[in-house]
Design a protein that fits this description.
The complex is a heterodimer of chains A (490) and B (484). By secondary structure, chain A is mostly beta strands. Chain A folds into 2 domains: 45-126 and 142-290, no CATH class; 308-464, no CATH class. Chain A is built from 5 helices and 18 strands. Chain A has helices at residues 2-16, 108-114, 154-157, 167-178, 231-237, and strands at residues 45-53, 64-71, 77-85, 90-98, 103-107, 211-220, 244-253, 257-263, 265-267, 311-312, 315-317, 325-332, 355-360, 365-367, 385-389, 405-411, 447-455, 459-464. In chain A, the strands form 4 sheets. Chain A has a 5-stranded antiparallel β-sheet. Chain B has helices spanning 3-15, 104-110, 153-156, 166-177, 221-224, and strands at 41-49, 60-67, 73-81, 86-94, 99-103, 199-208, 232-240, 247-252, 254-256, 299-305, 313-320, 348-353, 358-360, 379-383, 399-405, 441-449, 453-458. A 5-stranded antiparallel β-sheet of chain B has the order 4-3-6-1-9.
């Protein structure tokens, strides 16, 4: 890269000598898989920021979420799927074995209503290392039989992965994702006591009629189960190959039949490659799984996953003759580390938001609670994943102009956490990009926003909301001039 | 995941040592990756408008442009035919933090751009009042505050026309449905677009320094009009009104950033981009990357489902870089005639079903052969089971994915490999097997099931525009990362 950059610089300087040259700084990377930008390209982790499943209704009436994972490499891969509650508790984890070029869809209605993962033509379903690999017509389309990064136990532990799980676990799962506490004790956190009257447990998820949460899908080296996000997971299981792609659909099969969907969030490993546990440095200032790497004191970026941004600019339209409305699906990084106890999880239920400003179509701005200055109290807090109407109390009110549309500036940084790698020790606060002292002491938090628009009878779209920078861009302080993130170099 | 990398890392892990690879960029606006972040150019890869039907039943495409900076900006919209002819351009003046929706039905049926109140007027203007907002951080700057604006902005951008004259509207309708206008208003009577019932094409939206009728094919567009500020964001919706079976699809536009960003119109800046989005329009400039816009990828992995109990089907909306610049010419011998953009070959396509069985085109793929694969336009929509793509396998699977290497084989209009004998790899400047650089493309997957289930998603690219495109028949895989 340095050679190319040097050459390009010399060439362009020579060329530009003919005209007035605007000197604009250091070269960009031109490599694939080599930046903080979140692009729709093969990744090592996929994030489904929000799911919503009505498992109580018959399938013909039930709202559900589907997602599909593709392995776009010739090598077989294992995708570890983790279902998290809306307080960020990793409740269920299961592997999917993907042969080279495989594609696997999961309907979460199957999981939450039928206790079934990837049902197939045979009872039980599931995926398996024993899946037959076809003989394809050209070498370039031929799936490979093995992956050199697989652990030696794959042949045994990835055989006939269960497609059906016990009904007792299903009941726990349903409870965990609708009231935040399990019925039994199979998902790691205790149920209410059996005493009379029962002592309620601290919830690890919110209360709602539908199962609500988010999902991560990691490329891993084995199907052997380890505690989600544990030291073992990062030291022995997680891989770094950018080979997975995926998309999702939220399907409403009720009276108004419509669907919304888009690509999942493709989070790449930078740099990619190597076996599980490889200790490779990255220039990423922090990583997507940062708060789970506290056991790796000398390499907090052990997962190498790109960080997500903090600042967004989603558009909205609400009201008018078309009956338009807009909802935002929001994922927010929690404040807890991997060693949090069950009673800690409510801390992820009310994380503050740094700043929200609404602009109408005439650029009139409104701020929360009519707050006129940057010193006012910030907006209300939220849990780690939610869908919220843009007319809700979280957002500033509409301006008095009469405009029904515009856009919302959202700085979703949650104010930091001691679980984060930067600023974890008093006195060691530092800017997350340059390792110098900083005004905030803690790094910004990671977030993602999806804009869902709907109008009667069944006009429905969904789009990734615009981020005003990437996860390596410094998040602005509250009250700063609203603008795209600066590029520090030019 | 090259073997050398794996061996190296295995060795490092075995010794307990920590390996170090080359640095990634951690800068905002500083890579070849196409992210949904503020950009200097927005691409709407495909639009279609039924301008003959009443609004209650007319399919249309809307797009919205946001200026997320406090500075005023000018967004220059160009509507291109499906053969890549720049038929119509108009500027939109955006005050700081402005947002402007455009319904293409308004343009193609009503001859209106951004209709206002009353709807017989419309347009945007430099004279739009700037509000006084409650916090300094949310305050737009004045409409003359953009230091990169040219001096004529106050007059050139005052009361931009919102109404399209009838003669121009007629030409516009003709160019986008039969590919030929009357020449009365748009001075071109050559065949510059395909024939279809709906108006079909694509749109680009550039941040520029003044309001004019210029477009990227104008000789001085990149020397004195285009700007380099990554400040625009946008999305689109395709609306299909069918009474109680109405539906919509949409997503973000393609956000193409200037790398590096900033500077005045015509400023020459270093860019390590190997070539740029507007590459074929910069031949007359001393610096072929004068537009500094990120290039788009060539290889995609598009999931499909076609059939089954839900009667699901998938279409792909595809944008492809033309081989010709799209001047007004019907001559088959003119290398820049738009018609040359109507049958561009596809380098390679493979269909994988859900059991990974692969099917290929019936003919051997060779980029040098004459039309070895179905040729396509610069902007089109095609069902996943159409003849543009390999046939479905005999397994019975109704789903899977398509590997699409949409490289068109190159063009003498491109900056790399322009002259015989100096063909070179576009990233390393060494000789290369194909002689010219890959072409740029974009793919969107539209899924639909009756009665009203419809979604749309950007299709994953298997690399970025700086990743070398694989040759036909190469191992299907994500693009290599050359550095680690």
């Amino acid at each position: 890269m340095r050679t190319l950059a040097t050459y390009a610089l010399a060439l362009l300087l020579a060329t530009s000598a003919l005209a007035g040259t605007f000197r604009a700084g250091s070269p960009s990377t031109t490599n694939n898989d080599d930046s903080c930008d979140i692009a729709v390209q093969p990744a090592a982790t996929l994030l489904l920021p929000y799911f919503d499943v009505d498992f109580s209704s018959p399938q013909t009436k039930a709202r559900t979420t589907l997602f599909t994972v593709q392995n776009v490499s010739a090598l077989p891969q294992i995708a570890e799927v983790t279902l998290w509650t809306d307080y960020g508790y990793p409740a269920l984890q299961f592997p999917i074995f993907l042969t080279g070029y495989d594609v696997q869809s999961i309907n979460l209605y199957d999981v939450f209503a039928r206790a079934s993962i990837a049902p197939g033509p045979t009872p039980g379903g599931g995926t398996s290392v024993n899946t037959t690999v076809p003989v394809n017509p050209t070498p370039g389309t031929q799936p490979a039989p093995t992956n050199p990064n697989f652990l030696s136990d794959v042949g045994k532990v990835c055989t006939n992965l269960p497609g059906v799980f016990p009904t007792t676990l299903l009941r726990d799962l349903q409870q965990m994702f609708t009231v935040g506490v399990p019925a039994d004790n199979q998902l790691g956190c205790p149920p209410p006591s059996s005493t009379i009257p029962p002592t309620s447990s601290t919830p690890v998820g919110g209360t709602h009629a539908n199962a609500i949460g988010y999902i991560t899908i990691d490329v891993v080296a084995t199907c052997f189960p380890v505690k989600p996000m544990s030291k073992d997971y990062f030291a022995n299981n997680l891989l770094y190959d950018n080979v997975l792609t995926g998309d999702y659909q939220i399907v409403n099969t009720g009276d108004k039949k419509y669907a919304q969907g888009g690509p999942m969030v493709h989070i790449r490993a930078v740099p990619e490659g190597g076996p599980a546990g490889a200790s490779t440095l990255t220039n990423l200032p922090y990583t997507f799984y940062d708060r789970y790497t506290t056991a790796f004191f000398f390499n907090r970026a052990v997962d190498r996953r790109q960080p997500l941004p903090s600042t967004f600019a989603p558009r909205f339209i609400q009201g008018g003759p078309g009956g338009f409305n807009t909802s935002l699906r929001i994922w927010r990084e929690g404040v807890l580390s991997g060693d949090a106890t069950c009673s800690d999880y409510p801390k992820n239920s009310n994380m503050p938001v740094t700043e929200i400003v609404r602009f109408d179509e005439h650029e009139n701005a409104t701020v929360s609670s009519g707050c006129p200055t940057a010193t006012c109290a910030p907006p209300l807090g939220t849990q780690t994943t939610l869908t919220i109407d843009t007319s809700s109390f979280l957002f500033p009110p509409l301006a008095t102009s009469g405009d029904l549309a515009g856009w919302i500036f959202m700085n979703l940084s949650n104010g930091g956490s001691d679980a984060y790698s930067v600023g974890v020790v008093t006195g060691l606060a530092r800017d997350f990009r340059t390792n110098t002292s900083t005004r905030t002491g803690l790094r910004q938090s990671q977030n993602w926003v999806i804009t869902s628009m709907f109008a009667d009878p069944t006009f429905a779209t969904e789009a990734t909301a615009l981020a005003l920078g990437n996860g390596c861009s410094t998040s602005p302080v509250r009250g700063a001039q609203i603008a795209p993130a600066a590029n520090p170099t030019p | 995941m090259r073997w050398s990398v794996i061996v190296f890392l295995v060795a490092a892990a075995a010794s307990g040592a920590t390996s170090r690879t080359s640095p990634s960029t951690t800068n905002n606006d500083d890579s070849c990756d196409i992210a949904v972040q503020p950009a200097a150019t927005l691409l709407l890869p495909y639009f279609e408008v039924d301008f003959l039907s009443p609004p209650s039943s007319a399919r249309t495409t809307l797009f919205t442009v946001q200026n997320v900076s406090p500075y005023p900006q000018i967004a220059n919209v160009t509507l291109w035919t499906d053969y890549g002819y720049p038929a119509f351009s108009f500027p939109i003046f955006l005050t700081g933090y402005d947002v402007q929706g455009i319904n293409l039905y308004d343009i193609f049926t009503r001859g209106m751009i951004a209709p206002g109140f009353p709807p017989t007027s419309g347009g945007t203007s430099f004279t739009t009042p700037v509000p006084l907002n409650p916090t300094p951080g949310s305050q737009p700057f004045g409409n003359a505050a953009n230091p990169n604006f040219l001096a004529d902005v106050p007059t050139a951008c005052a009361l931009l026309a919102g109404v399209i004259p009838p003669a121009l509207l007629q030409d516009l309708q003709l160019l986008f449905v039969i590919g030929k206008g009357t020449g009365q208003s748009i001075p071109c009577t050559a065949a510059v677009g395909g024939t279809h019932v709906l108006a079909i094409g694509y749109a680009t939206i550039d941040v520029v320094a003044t309001c004019s009728a210029k477009n990227p094919s104008s000789s001085d567009y990149f020397a004195g009009t285009a700007l380099f500020d990554n400040v625009l964001v946008g999305d689109y919706q395709e609306i299909v009104p069918r009474g109680d079976k109405s539906y919509a699809q949409g997503g973000p536009m393609v956000h193409i950033r200037a790398v590096p960003e900033g500077g005045a119109a015509g400023a020459v800046a270093d860019s390590s981009l190997p070539y740029t989005f507007y590459d074929r329009y910069t031949a007359a400039l001393p610096q072929r990357t004068a537009d500094r816009r990120q290039p788009l990828p060539s290889v995609f992995a598009a999931r499909y489902i076609a059939g089954g109990t839900g009667a699901l089907n998938t279409s792909f909306k595809i944008w492809r870089e033309g081989v010709a610049t799209g001047i007004c010419s019907s001559s088959v011998t003119n290398p820049n005639a738009p018609s040359r953009n109507s049958y561009m070959p596809i380098a390679d396509a493979v269909r994988f079903d859900e059991h990974e069985n692969a099917t290929l085109y019936p003919l051997p793929i060779a980029i040098s052969a004459a039309l070895p694969t179905p040729g396509t336009n610069a902007a089109f929509s095609a069902p996943a089971i159409s003849g543009f793509f390999p046939a479905i396998s005999t397994s019975g699977d109704v789903g899977g994915w398509l590997y699409l290497n949409l490289n068109n084989g190159g063009s003498t209009a491109y900056s790399v490999g322009l002259t015989s004998g100096i063909a070179r790899d576009f990233r390393t400047n060494t000789s290369t097997y194909i002689g010219v650089r890959q072409s740029q493309n974009w793919v969107i997957a539209s899924m639909f099931a009756e009665p009203t289930y419809a979604t749309e998603a950007t299709v994953p690219a298997l690399g970025n525009g700086c990743s070398p495109s694989p040759r036909a028949g190469a191992q299907v895989a994500p693009a290599a990362n050359p550095t680690p």
